User: Fold this.
Amino acid sequence: QVQLVESGGGLVQPGESLRLSCAASGSFFSSYIMGWYRQAPGKQRELVASITSGGAYQNYVDSVKGRFTISRDNAKKTVYLQMDSLKPEDTAVYYCNTAGAWTRLPWGQGTQVTVSS
Assistant:
């Protein structure tokens, strides 16, 4: 069964950057559309970025366009989220999982991102 392990979160000041990583196990990672999701306290989990199986196409929610970049390395079974110009409203627990029509895999523990001065 595929497992997802997120890392790279932390406490940063507004305007700073973080790079999140999500390592996957299992044999079919390269087939999946993958996404990064986030859940802020008291809010529903939302998809913020997704990337096609080969990495050619990416989509972003409007609130992160121009600031976040999703990428993947299928040989390493890893998906990344480069987050620049972070804002306090980006504070959330970040998770990776499949996106689009793919059945969601078991959720990992996520990684906490806190943006605060």
